[in-house]
Amino acid sequence: MKNALVRFIRDEQGATAIEYGLIAGLIAMGMVAGATTLGSNLSSAFSNLGAKILALLPAA
Question: Membrane-crossing residues (predicted)?
Fold first, then answer.
């Protein structure tokens, strides 16, 4: 197992650690943007739902 890890670290073919870091950064940015958009949409949806429920309740 240790030999395989050493070979993997020394291997310079394919994607490098920098490329993996860039890919991970782009994925993280996409996740943050998606979560922000989803959060805003959910907030609006729950606000609209609350307003409709309040409209259906009899006046106190």
Answer: 20-39
3-state secondary structure of 15: coil
Q: For residue 18, give both structure tokens.
A: 């920098």
Q: Chunk the chain into consecutive blocks of 10 residues (it has 60) and report each block's average pLDDT, rounded to whole numbers.
A: 82 74 94 93 94 87
Q: Which residues of 24-55 are buried (b: 16+ CB within 10 A; e: fewer)?
A: eeeeeeeeeeeeeeeeeeeeeeeeeeeeeeee
User: In whole angstroms, what is the distance from residue 57 CA to residue 60 CA?
Assistant: 9
Query: CA torsion angle for 40, 44, 47, 49 (degrees, to 10)?
Result: -130
What is this structure's pTM?
0.53
